[in-house]
Amino acid sequence: MRVLSRFMAAATDAAQFPVPSLPEIAFLGRSNVGKSSVINSLVGTKMARTSSTPGRTRSINFFEIRWPGKPRPELIFADLPGYGYAKISREISREWPKFIEPYLNDRPTLGLCVVLVDANLPPQPSDRQLLDFLGSSDREFLLVATKSDRLSNNQLHNALRTLTQEHPAARLLAFSAKTGAGRDELWKHIRQAAQQMTTPETSSG
Question: How large is the angle between the packed helices 183-198 and 35-43, nearest 10 degrees?
């Protein structure tokens, strides 16, 4: 399935966020976790720029997502800056209070945070900090283990078990942008989150 996507805005300040309208799905993860590859795999085209230099995304980039044949966009993807890469992490962590924290804390249309972790690495403290932050903000999140194609079935099983032990409250999904493994399941979670945002009970508040 290929969906239609359109770049809307790049925000480095809360004042630059688009007016809240459609349900939003935020993508977060450490630099070099393969965030752009996951987004591009979902939409079936090169929408988010992939870079060999970690930490290239310095703004929150908003994209409208529309199903083919539908007249209007149905949801928005928000691509957030990577974190945890030594050279620029200090720079970005200084920026967090300015626009990333307000987005994660206060955005009324944010339906789901897709938190990407590298299946090939042991659990990282910065991921734990992010998940604790999302938990304290009462945000729905889904933990997605990327680059799962690089591991054998046995290695992947062990990696997922370790992640589950580290983050017992998290829903966990293995994903490979290369093979497409986990893509349909991730779309299912995204669409469910978007539908929950648009039901009358939640949209009236």
Answer: 80
Compute the distance between CA of residue 91 and CA of residue 74 in angstroms, rounded to an integer. 34
pLDDT in tens, 157-193: 999 999 999 999 899 999 999 999 999 999 999 999 9
Give the pair of three-digit tokens for residue 106: 């206060």
Tally of CA atoms within 13 A in the half-sphere of 29 that contains its CB:
25
Taking the CB of residue 52, how many other CB atoms lie within 10 A of it? Answer: 6
**In degrees to the nearest 10, what's the CA dihedral of 14, 20, 23, 27?**
-10
pTM: predicted TM-score of the whole model, two decimal places: 0.89
> With contact defined as beta carbons under 8 Å apart, do 116 and 34 qualify?
yes
Spell out, as residue ranges, where the chain has pLDDT lower than 70.
Answer: 1, 49-57, 84-96, 199-205
